[in-house]
Design a protein that fits this description.
The protein is an alpha/beta fold and 585 residues long. It folds into 4 domains: 151 residues, DNA polymerase, domain 1; 89 residues, Beta Polymerase, domain 2, CATH 3.30.460.10; 76 residues, Beta Polymerase, domain 3 (2-Layer Sandwich); 241 residues, Metal-dependent hydrolases (TIM Barrel, Alpha-Beta Barrel), CATH 3.20.20. The strands form 4 sheets. Strands 10-11-12-13-14-15-16 form a 7-stranded parallel sheet. α1 crosses α5 and α20 runs parallel beside α21. The longest helix has 20 residues. The protein is globular and about 80 Å long. It starts with a helix and ends in a 5-residue tail after the last helix. Bound molecules: zinc ion (2 copies).
């Protein structure tokens, strides 16, 4: 059970209690607990396992809640929730998922109109009956209709890119084992490197389509065959993900791969450009718009052929979002996107000195095996007490160990790795940083992050971050918006002001590569680039394994159109060392 799982159970309990008419105070207590738990960096299991601490140390967690958490951790269940769930009709859970429609309102609809399903709610809205219920109006009715579509569209939650990537790798490996497959590739939002992926799309060329489809359905991980045809089949695979497979003719592979990669907006623009050239374009290739056309339609065996026929350079999938990529491709001005092999250093990671799983030496060895030239060790500062954050004494002791480690490494000869003495220092709720300036001034590398007080008003949060940006010791702002994909929205912050201040101070902004952070996102990173801010792609690894998420951060940077010049840790060690020299501001 992750903290997020436990938090979700308490949230659901709060929903059901509220639906049941329980007193507001009790409902609020469960909601507050859910928030505290979700915000916790360290796992509840680890806190409970530590004899020197107790779950009741957490804000808003008393004895009763601590006992319930214990039960959840041991059994994966919350008996009170099971009991309540049994009393509430199953369809109510569907209704509770509609954004903006809390438990109290759902109850009103159930009691007042006899609503018992998403369908009956839709009917009631269309019939104008919902506006007759006290507290509901025409506007609410319209909002419910819109949100109904949202709930139906997200019946299966979109997966984080990295999780989807695992499924893609497995299904491709299986399909490539089929002798009838000549070529098979994955497309869709996975290929565009999107933060989350809904369905997985596969496009194949085959000598025998029937055999390929049969092989597909026979996959070990197929839990359900949704559709089965000769050119298209759909299955449900790992993580409940739908996987669609199309078999196309080799002559149209490029058109099909492009078509199923999307995005929709990109495809619309490509098709309209094809029409300007006198062709219609779909997954089967080019056709003349007005037959009989004089010229033979262009070939579409590769994506490059399709783009070239339209006077465009091949566009990397990460840029195919229907923004300015066609204009850039037409003028041959597409950026040379940063690649994972450009990355030479990793400047945000944790060790067992705080909440990491691996020791300092393990992390250094792991980074070295990945071929990195330099890393920064950036454990938490003391404010992050649940993660055993470092105070001045412990930090200086760690830095001594790093000094000795660097000497040993240098003595080992060729291609040593340089370990920088860093810290992830907290921006305090009241303003200011969590360590004295004279300590921070001695660091090689300071990441400043905001972990607490995330619900403060916009001006307050923005001010805290601006203060850190202007601090002379701070090099980079860690995970600048604090969002956790599928779990927690960003805190309210004026990113325009943050980017402007970072540009002015020469402070970098992080693209945190953790698959559930990817923070900055592509829009913010693109805006930062336009403003002349350089970025650092960091893994924020809490284990040697965690160093592997760099590729996710690189994908996000590519989606923002970043080149290696925009990425500080694409510098080799010598250039990076020069950059570390005293700043001009
Ligand atoms: Zn952090
Ligand atoms: Zn961190």
């Amino acid at each position: 059970m992750t903290n997020a799982d436990v938090a979700a159970l308490f949230d659901r309990l709060a929903d059901l209690l509220e639906y049941d008419g329980e007193n507001a105070f009790r409902v609020r207590a469960y909601r507050a607990a859910a928030r505290t738990i979700a915000d916790q960096i360290e796992s509840l299991g680890a806190i409970r396992a530590d004899d020197t601490r107790s779950l009741t140390d957490l804000e808003g967690i008393g004895r009763d809640l601590a006992a319930k958490i214990g039960t959840i951790l041991d059994t994966g269940r919350l008996p009170l929730l099971d009991e309540l769930s049994g009393k509430v009709p199953a369809d109510v859970f569907d209704l509770l998922r509609i954004p903006g429609l809390g438990p109290k309102k759902v109850r009103q609809l159930v009691d007042g109109l006899g609503i018992d399903s998403l369908d009956s709610l839709e009917e009631a809205c269309r019939g104008g009956r919902v506006r007759g219920v006290k507290g509901f109006g025409e506007k609410t009715e319209a909002a419910i209709l819109k949100n109904l579509a949202f709930v139906r569209g997200t019946a299966v939650q979109r997966q984080l890119w990295e999780d989807a990537d695992q499924v893609v790798a497995e299904v491709l490996a299986w399909m490539r084992g089929c002798p009838a497959v000549e070529r098979i590739e994955a497309a869709g939002s996975w290929r565009r490197g999107c933060e989350t992926v809904g369905d997985i799309d596969l496009v194949a060329v085959a000598t025998d389509a029937v055999a390929v489809m049969e092989h597909f359905r026979r996959w070990d991980h197929t839990t359900d065959v949704i559709a089965s045809g000769v050119t298209k089949s759909s299955i449900r695979g790992p993580r409940g993900m739908q996987i669609d497979l199309r078999v196309v003719v080799s002559a149209a592979f490029g058109a099909a791969w492009l078509y199923f990669t999307g995005s929709k907006e990109h495809n619309i623009r490509v098709r309209s450009r094809a029409r300007e050239h006198g062709w219609s374009l779909n997954e089967y290739g080019f056709q003349p718009v007005d037959p009989p056309a004089a010229a033979q339609p262009p070939t579409a065996e590769t994506e490059a052929e399709v783009y070239h026929a339209l006077g465009l350079a091949w566009i990397p999938p990460e840029l195919r979002e229907g923004r300015d990529e066609l204009a850039l491709a037409a003028e041959v001005r597409l950026p040379r996107l940063v690649e994972e092999q450009d990355i030479r250093g990793d400047l945000h990671m944790h060790t067992t000195d705080t909440d990491g799983e691996d020791t300092l030496t393990d992390m250094v060895r792991g980074a070295r095996e990945r071929g990195l030239e330099y890393i920064a060790i950036t454990d938490h500062s003391q404010r992050v007490s649940m993660a055993h954050g470092l105070d001045e004494t412990r930090l200086l002791r760690q830095w001594d160990r790093i000094d000795r480690l660097n000497e040993t490494l240098a003595a080992e000869g060729p291609a040593p790795i340089v370990v920088l003495k860093g810290i992830e220092v907290d921006m305090l709720e009241r303003g200011g940083l969590d360590l004295h300036d004279h300590v921070l001034a001695r660091a090689d590398w300071v990441v400043a992050s905001l972990h607490y007080g995330q619900s403060q008003p916009r001006e307050r949060i923005t001010e805290r971050i601006l203060e850190a940006i202007r601090h002379p010791a701070v090099r980079v702002i860690g995970h600048p918006t604090g969002r956790l994909i599928n779990r927690r929205p960003a805190y309210d912050v004026d990113m325009e002001a943050v980017i402007a201040a970072a540009a002015l101070a020469g402070t970098f902004l992080e693209i945190n590569a953790h698959p559930s952070r990817l923070d900055l996102d592509d829009h913010h990173a693109a805006a930062a680039r336009r403003a002349g801010v350089r970025m650092v792609i960091s893994t924020d690894a809490h284990s040697v394994r965690g160093l592997g998420v760099m590729r996710c951060g690189v994908l996000q940077a590519r989606r923002a159109g970043l080149t290696s010049v925009d990425v500080v840790n694409a510098l080799g060690w010598n250039d990076f060392r020069n950059l570390l020299g005293p700043r001009s501001t």
